[in-house]
Amino acid sequence: MLNASHSASAFGAGGNSSNLSTVPDPGEALLSREPRFLQPLWELRLGYEEYLQSPLFPVVLSVFHYFGLCIPVTFVDVFCKRHKWYNKYKIQPDKEITAAQLRDTLTLTMWNHVLFIMPAAMAQWVWTPSSPLPEMAPTLADFLWHQIAGLFIFDFQYFVWHMMHHKVRFLYRHIHAVHHRYNSPFVWVTQYLHPWELVVAGFLTTTNTWFFDSHPLTVWSYMVVSITISVEAHVGFDFPFSMHRLDPTGNFGGSPKHDMHHQKPLTNFEPFFNHFDKMFGSFCPPMGPGGTKSKALTDYERRARECKKNF
Ligand SMILES: [Zn+2]
Ligand SMILES: [Zn+2]
């Protein structure tokens, strides 16, 4: 899928100009008196501004965060697969991750980084000037709502893009099919993408915070959160602490829902949430840990079989 995240920031850095506290107008003076709970965190930038304001920083942050998440999970897949708990929480415990699969996914990930992410980052480094960082941190309210709104916007954009790339045979066969080579996802499948999908996901992720003229701290955090959700969607596990279990509304998709998309590719197109899939009838109840099936899923499969018979 998406991956929103996916390598997002090779297409733009964060930051805006309106947050720069160089213009002493009355409105800004009022703003600066708003409590800034994130100011202590923002102060940590001091001494590193030269690096942080570089257009390369969001790219470096995204790439390191992606590899930083994937590498430990790979160790789990390689060294823990004989443990009881591993199969208890694995969504498709009968599908073993092989060395050949790891080699294949890592190879494409590397090529995508070398041929697309790095050149885009270099171009940005050469042509985009560094923008000075603001003195003030964003307000907590702006920090949170910009990111939540960014996630919902990306979720809608990618839902439409994703559905089109499944429904239009040409688009599926030539672009999105790459991501569906594996019907049992594992972390490195997150960015196992055709370059065009990588470019689109990166562009959408990057530009969404431009709608809000977001503070650089918000932009960086949004990228980290997007990448984290995308990687978690592909881990292939449903742990008691998995993200979807922490959402009291039940609208967050998480790893079981996206795992089901890899099993039944004409369902669950939405990358982060459930509301559009439920609204447009593409929602399929996910499989639980250890390959368990809920009543909702067995009912869904029975209805699908009946539909096929009657067709
Ligand atoms: Zn996927
Ligand atoms: Zn898909």
Automatic annotation (TrEMBL):
The chain crosses the membrane at residues 56-80, 110-127, 143-161. GO terms for molecular function: iron ion binding; oxidoreductase activity. Keywords: Membrane, Transmembrane, Transmembrane helix. Residues 1-20 are annotated as: Disordered. It is found in: Membrane. Pfam families: FA_hydroxylase. This is Fatty acid hydroxylase domain-containing protein. It comes from Elysia chlorotica.
